Amino acid sequence: xxxxxxxxxxxxxxxxxxxxxxxxxxxxxxxxxxxxxxxxxxxxxxxxxxxxxxxxxxxxxxxxxxxxxxxxxxxxxxxxxxxxxxxxxxxxxxxxxxxxxxxxxxxxxxxxxxxxxxxxx
Length: 121
Hints:
single chain; Immunoglobulin-like; 55% strand; 11 strands
């Protein structure tokens, strides 16, 4: 079956703490070698960046705040440093087929459980 797994379902942290490689994404979908990371909050859905095999492509506005590592064909971990109140939200990943010859073909499988980063003071 084609599925993407993500753990844990919930993370609760205090402001100022970090989420260090605690949000994990994995898949075993053949020919899907890109993992994309997203954040959803009251402002909508935002692409944080993606991992194409072992090459990292974070969005410019999250560099230094959010990072990820891994191998897009298998797994990735997300890190969020020095949490602020606006870092709360739903973080999730997706796996995508990557082809140099057909860049319009995108097959996305989202996760079963969605981690929420909640903050306490």
